[in-house]
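Aim 2 progress update. The chain analyzed this quarter is reproduced below.
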Amino acid sequence: MIYHCEDHTCNYWDEGEKLPERCPQCGRKLLRANEADMTGDDWTALGNTLWDAEASDKKRMVDCFRKAAYLGSAWGVCNLGICMEQGNGVEADPVQAFWLYQQAAGMGRLNAVCCLGVCYQYGIGTAPDAKQAAELYCKAAEYGSPRGQMLLARAFHDGIGVEADAAEAVHWVRAAAYQRYGEGMHRLGVCYEYGDGVEQNWEHAVHWFREAAESGVSTAMTDLGYCYEKGCGVEQSWEQAFSWYRRGAECGYPVSMSNLGLCYKRGYGVEQNWQEAVKWYEQGAQCGNLQSMNNLAYCYERGEGVEQNEERALYWYRRGAEAGSDYCMYCLGWNYSNGEGVEQNMTEAIRWYTAAAEGGNADAMHDLGWLYDHGEGVEQDMKKAICWYERAAEQNHPAAMNSLGECYAMGRGVPRDLETAMEWYRRAAELGEAMADYNMGWHLEQAGKLSEAYAHYRKAADGNDDSAWWALGRFYENGVVVAQDGKEARRCYETGEKLGSAKCKMRLARCKLLGIGGRREKKAGLDLCRQALELAKESSEKEDYGYEAEMNLLRRTIAENES
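Predicted structure tokens:
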């Protein structure tokens, strides 16, 4: 049974076993249709309903469009062409699609003119011809087609078949926006956001984002949420940001899903709820959003909002990596490098680090440089190490700047140049790299600039650099710059030891043996010193400044106290 809304302006058509009570679009009465009386546009409207229905018979949809075309509906001819182009309900046939668009365009269907232009632009069913595409977009635009106006705007923006002209692009975007065309309103907001073809104006951007969002454009909902999040063109409000992200997410926009998950994760504009965060990350990830994949993998890795599961974390990192996320590539490389959730495999680690680095991930650039620097998982190659360090440093990666500083300080892969080393340390330290402050302190100490060295050690220690606590402990133990204080020295060593410093462990054992900053326990102290020495032999700190000196000091201390 075919039926339609009694209000012909509604243009709702559908079919089923029985007649529903009310039109789902306008709520008016539904009437049973007589197939013999149906026009081509009626059949097109029925086909469109089947198009939008998820579980509909697509072959039946195509049959409706064929009947519409037979009855002379330009609308039906155009839609049949779209089916042919997309292979929707019928085997794809771009040549036939192109021919159908020509017929519908000749019958005055403006959308067909637009479709024909797209065919010329991308070479669908015909040879590419950018100039012809632009001419068709112009024709549709001048006749008032908002889609044509947007296509022409894009042509002027990107220089497709016409000379690039940002101002002319905005003119046509504005024409579409003034017709309340959702894409046009959103795009006009983007133009004002970035100052693209117009003077940047956040207030105007917010206005058009709001207009588009309230008309149902999910991308505009997300952009409006961002404006509220950052306080751009509107008073900052996490509650409003959350509200618009939610609306966008509920409309099925993956970016909104990711942003909504972040709001729930951090309690921005809503009470913190890890379970809700994971739920929205999951939905965004299933829709192919890379950021959602990143975040979901992290949740599984850390057990945040979901039971910890390294395999699931690895699964989503891999999904994201294969989809092009440089961050997921980096995480996947890190997992292979450290044997987290997967058997350690340095070949795979290098492969994914390289992919991430080439994709622009600065963390991967640095870690890849470090592997080449130390010859781990790959043959040592200082030229490649320096290259990757420099590329990461160009992105203001503080650890890479520090690593470059170490290379220049030691003449590793580059001529030794302490002045250049200190400059890289300084830049890294300004970005919060605690190890760089420690390295600066060490070189200043060697140069006899003890007060400056102490200041950098203190700053590095405040940033939880374990070696900095070792350096501070020495200053307090020996009364350098500061008053001699054995208890404070021991406290520094204890803090560094808890952070994993082998040098602090050796100093702490020595303190207990000699009674520095506390009671002397010769036998227990000797045992502890021997343990510290053995553990230090396997430490990853072997290349650290002062490491060998500490080993030798502890050996002498043990020898002097064994008799």
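The domain at 465-563 is CATH 1.25.40.10 (Serine Threonine Protein Phosphatase 5, Tetratricopeptide repeat). The two ends are 106 Å apart (CA to CA). These observations will guide the mutagenesis experiments scheduled for the next reporting period.
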